[in-house]
Amino acid sequence: MNKKLFVLLVILMSLSLIGIIFVQVYWIRTSINDKEEQFSRTVTDILDKVASRVEKREMKDYSDRLASLVDSVDQPKSTQFRNFLFVDRDLNSDEILFYSHGILEEDYNISSTFFDNLTGEEDSTTITNFTSKRTKAVFREEYGLDGKSYSLTPIQRAEKIGGLSSIEKLALEDVFMEYAKSRPIHKRVTKQELELLLGQELGNRNIDIDYEYGVYSQGYPTKVKSKKFKFSESKMYKAPIFKDSEGLSNFSLLLTFPSMNKFLFQSIMGMALLSLVFTLVIMVAYSSAIYQLIKQKQISEIKTDFINNMTHEFKTPIATINLAVEAIRNPNSIEDKEKVLRYLGMIKDENKRMHAQVENVLRISKLEKNQLDISKDRVDVHDIIEDAVTHIELIVADRGGYVHTHLDAGRSEVLANDTHFTNVIVNMLDNAVKYSPESPKIDVYTELVKNSIIVKIKDQGAGMSKVVLKKVFEKFYREHTGDIHNVKGHGLGLAYVKRIVEDHQGEVYAESEKGKGSTFFIKLPLI
Predict the structure, then answer these.
(1) Which stretches of 369-439 are DSSP H helices?
(2) What are the b/e assignments for 379-399, b being 16+ CB within 10 Å?
(3) How far does Cα 256 stand from its chain's mean position?
(4) In this predicted structure, what is the pLDDT of residue 445?
(5) Measured between alpha carbons, how far is 59 from 63 in angstroms, rounded to an integer?
(6) In DSSP terms, which residues pair with 238 in a beta bridge?
(7) What CA–CA distance (Å, rounded) separates 313 from 305?
(8) How far is CA 162 from each of CA 59, 98, 130, 210, rounded to the nearest angstrom?
(9) Which residues lie across from 55 on neighbouring strands?
(10) Along the chain (527 residues), what's the average pLDDT of each consecutive run of 10 residues?
């Protein structure tokens, strides 16, 4: 993948993720604000209804007391009846409409104690009761056959008897309202009544939340309030209570919810958690996608490097074989059996070298697919180490180095595959030789740790950085030391080592410091 395209994809995906997170956060905040606004409207409506119910209850109390006192008086002090009459004649239908409205006015002399007069005076108070009687009748004019007889035939009659009109009721209510202003607030409404009404109205709207309430008079607290109520300018709902005929009031019913934020958040908790889960899934998917993109990019680069190295590794033996074949075909050389045999030996060695390279790649491929058949027998680790050292000691000696063994483990028998485990040790020794810029100096140790044997291969080569140390056992990975081909190989040796050791229920790891060499450890369970 092109580097610019890769960077562009990462930027676009990052911006998309940030946008999604921003939208989710904005949605949650908007939902909470909407819930808070809806909650505020509901609570305001509740307060208005509670205040209205308290006012109606107070008015009903006065009305009931008035009715009780009126009933207790035998006869009114004075009685007056007024009657209004309306007559209309319809010439088209020969019908006559009679409508009358009579008002009976009764005056009662009731003691002022009805109003709980604060002055203590025993003045009399006049209470007037009005009763209305409304009558509607329709008559039809009828004449006899001789044209002389005449009569009014009733065809409709309705009569209603009622009390005060709406206007008269409002006048009476206004009198009560003015009087009630002089009474202490705790005599007009009780805490028990407010708690009952608030509980009912909140329950009717499925609001289950703790609340505190209080009645304030012109900004000052009264006795009517809950124990934990505290005045606060913010997050407090209020509504006027005990309004007069002009809609004005000196009292306010206040309501607060200490755990309102928690209640509002819980109301959208389900959707918020679902949104959060999906956002986390997107983030994980995004992180995985970025990781896979970077990984694939690295693998692509490593495979390109591998192909280049494989080509380089095959180029030399192929060229050598071609030269040997051309030399054999030369008429002057074909007669010289010694030369022919030498050239054939070179062809065989180079072919064997290429075959070994191919086998190394195929071996890793089979390991990846779990197709490599590894049979295990009782073997001696010390014997395998000695055998592996013989494979590379000539190369080490040719470069002026050494391989010293310190086989100090008292027990060394393990269950392993002789061939594969020998290849493991050879690969690790060969790796130590490759990454020793000067003369290879290698020491091999064995020691016992509980019921396991540890093989330690220490060199004094170039060493590795911490970044390289984390990736050194990955397939195709090789640390470059300048020229891409200055160290031969395909990055498969240590990957092969790791798979074989793990298949033997062991573990392999390394310690290294740049410029101070490396130490590889193989830990295997003893029989």
Answers:
(1) 381-398, 418-434
(2) bebbebbeebbeebeeebeee
(3) 29
(4) 93
(5) 6
(6) 254
(7) 12
(8) 20, 19, 9, 47
(9) none
(10) 74 83 82 82 88 84 70 58 70 75 65 48 57 75 62 60 57 67 78 86 83 83 82 76 76 82 74 81 83 77 68 72 82 77 81 72 63 76 88 80 89 86 84 85 90 91 82 66 44 74 88 87 90
Rounded distance between C-alpha atoms, residue 406 and residue 444, angstroms: 6
Q: Residues 210, 255: contact at Cβ < 8 Å?
A: no
Q: Closest Cα partner for 445 from 459, 465, 463? A: 459
Report DSSP state, residue 405.
Answer: E
Whole-number Å distance between alpha carbons of 434 and 309: 15
Q: Burial code of 84-105, b = ≥16 C-beta within 10 A, e = fewer?
A: eeeeeeeeeeebeebeeeebbe
pLDDT at residue number 364: 62
| Res 490: pLDDT | 44
CB 456 within 8 A of CB 510: no
Report the alpha-carbon distance of residue 31 to residue 268 in Å, rounded.
Answer: 7
Are 427 and 496 in contact by the 8 Å Cβ rule? The answer is yes
DSSP for residue 101: E
Cβ distance 475 to 492 under 8 Å? yes
The token pair that represents 21 in the structure block: 């997170």
- Tokens 């007024």 identify what position? 82
DSSP string, 252-299: EEEEE-TTHHHHHHHHTHHHHHHHHHHHHHHHHHHHHHHHHHHHHHHH
Could you tell me if 431 and 493 are in contact, meaning their C-beta atoms sit under 8 angstroms apart? yes
Q: 213: closest CA among 59, 58, 55, 43?
A: 43
Q: Residue 210, class by beta-carbon neighbours within 10 Å (0-12 exposed, 13-18 middle, 19+ buried)?
A: exposed
| DSSP assignment of 126-175 | EEEEEEEEEEEEEEEEEE-TTS--EEEEEEEEEEEEE---HHHHHHHHHH
Residue 511's contacts (CB-CB under 8 Å, 6 or more residues apart) are 469, 518, 519, 521
Tokens of 46: 């509740």
Task: Give residue 527's pLDDT.
Answer: 81
- Tell me the pairing of strands 150-162 and 124-143: antiparallel
The predicted pLDDT at position 69 comes to 63
